[in-house]
Structure formats: structure tokens, C-alpha cells
Amino acid sequence: MAHSLRSQWSIRTPLGARVGSIELKIAFVMMIKTGLSRCLVLTAAATMLAGCGALGSSGPHTRTGKAADLLPSASAGPHTESGSSGSPSGSGHGDGAPPSGPAATGSAPGAFPDAYRRWGLDRPLAPPPRPPKVKPPLAALWPPVPELATVIRRVDTTDRVVFLTLDDGIEKDPAFVDQARDLGLPFTQFLEDEVIGDHYDYFGRLRELGNRIGNHTLTHPKLAGQDYEFQLHEICGQQDVLHYRLGLEPHLFRPPYGDYDRNTLRAAADCGLGKVVLWRAEMEPDGLVYRSGSGLRPGDIILAHFRGPDMLKGATMTDMITSLLREIQAQGFTVARLEDYI
Asked: Is 251 helix (H, G, I), strand (E, B) or coil?
């Protein structure tokens, strides 16, 4: 329902700019939540947009709130859209997956059979099993609740695979693009606008390798305890940025610091994000640490970050990834693509 609402109230001009503001979106969502007819709400939305000159206007459209400060004007020309705004399905361009690329098939190694030597591995990264024909049931932290996003920390599988996720976007090391391509490394990027700024092209290059993109909010606040409108602004605002910058409608969300409450799950669902992805293992400068137990388990989701030498005790992003992959291999696992399983 919420994703359909986004598609109907968000009108795209010939320039591809998204019409309307986060504040209008909040108002429309709240109107539906309080029981007003969806038809009446959409009629009101169309009337308001028309009254603001949104329909048939030849100039850029005005945004308000934080998104207005973070998005460039439509007159600057948006990036070409290659994604789809169809309904959430866990597959297709909506999550940021292009039709090709070494990691798009979930296989490894990538373009160069001997690339592992270049990147400091003792042996090639083993290809994961073929993606399951039927995705396993979600290993939700509690039974799914209507109108709330589902929270997962791991994948329910016996395959000897783990899933790599990279957060924020602080570091933009060109060598990591080469490493990801050479190794055919699958991962999911959870992007935060504030630290990326005007450098979405870097993450677009990683996306072209088949690595999907998720939402990590506009400014990385601690969401738990904040009111619904604030959380909706942070989450839907980043959805709009990702649409404008990369032509995407992500379906996966990661809350900053892994903290969330019921309002977070409501807001995520209302922004078209059906799954909240947490983690069990995290890559830190000194190696993997675990939220519970010790060692990797089948289906573990691993958190790492886009980091550079100033935050990795002098190591580079590619050094960190090599250390992580060596540890994954030492424990008898390989890396699969998360979206193949959820």
C-alpha cells in the first residue's frame, strides 16, 4: 500500500525530478493512517500539486525541509534513470541491481581467474551455491506485523555462505571498485546522503558490478525514540535522494547504529522499505566481532563500512576487505548475494 502511495503521489516531470515535498508525503501518509479514504487523499494530493504548479510546469519544482538542502535543483539535470519504480519484489532494478555485472549472478571469482593473488588472498573466493529457486522463510526477529517492516539479523539457510553489507559511504577508494570487479565480490551498499554529497557516481560504479543499494537515512541519526514524522523524513528523504541520484527505489533499510523502534518500522514500511537488515558479525579494524557466540554461522549477515586509513589504523579499504575475506575463507565460508536469499 505505502509503495503504491509513493508511486501515485510522486509525479515525475520530463526532467525526471520528483515532485512534492517530504512534508506533503508525511501529511498524506498520516491522513490515510487516520482512516480517510485513500481516493480522497490522492485527490487532495493531486489538487495540492496542481495548485502549486506541479502539473505541466516547465521549471524546476520546489522542495522543502532537509531534502531541499541536500538535493540539487532539477534545472541541474538529474542522473539518467536505469531503475524501476515497480512494486517491491526483492529483485530487479528497484533494489539497484543492473541486468549484468560479475556480482549480478552471485558468482565468484569475477573477471580475472588469478585476481585473488593481486588482492592478497591465498586462493580464489569460492563461488556460492546457485541461488535457491524458492527463497527461504525470513528469519525475522519476531513474527511479521502488518504495516511494519520485517527485521532480520541473519538468513535461514544451511548453505556455507555469509552476506557482506557495507554502510555509509565515507570512503570512496577507487581501488575498491577494481577489487570488487576482479573478485566478483557480491555485497549490499547501505548509503547515507550526508557523507556522500555529490559523489553518488562512485557508488553507481559499484552498482554497475551488480551490487545493490539500500537506504541508511539522510543524516545518520539515532532513530529510536524520535517521533514518527522525524523518522519518516529521514528515511523517505533518502529514498528520494537515491531515486534522484541513481534512479532507484530500494527495498532494504538499515537503521543507523542498528537502533530502531516501532516508529522506525512504520516509517520504513511507509517509505516502501519492507525489510530492516541488521547483522550478527561486524568487521572492525582488529578483525571480526560477533553479537553473540563466536565464529561465523551459515546465513550470517556481516557489517562493514566504507572506511579509509584514518579509520582503519592505517589500512586501506582494500586491505580491510582482504582481511575479511581471508577470515571468511578460513572459517569455511564464501560470500553470496543477500538479495538472492531474501
From this structure: coil
Residue 35: helix, strand or coil by DSSP?
coil
Q: Which CATH class is domain 89-340?
A: alpha beta
Question: pLDDT tens digits, residue range 222-238?
Answer: 999 999 999 999 999 99
Cell output for 188: 549490499
In 159-254, alpha helices (H): 174-183, 193-196, 200-208, 228-246
Say how many residues make up the chain. 342
List the chain domain ranges: 1-74, 89-340
Task: At 277, give phi and psi (nearest 5°).
Answer: -105, 115
What is the pTM assigned to this prediction? 0.75
Q: Is 67 left (phi over 0), alpha (psi -120 to 50) or beta?
A: alpha
DSSP H/E element including 270: helix 262-270
Could you tell me if 239 and 271 are in contact, meaning their C-beta atoms sit under 8 angstroms apart? Answer: yes
Q: How confident is the model at residue 30 (pLDDT cuts 50, 70, 90)?
A: low
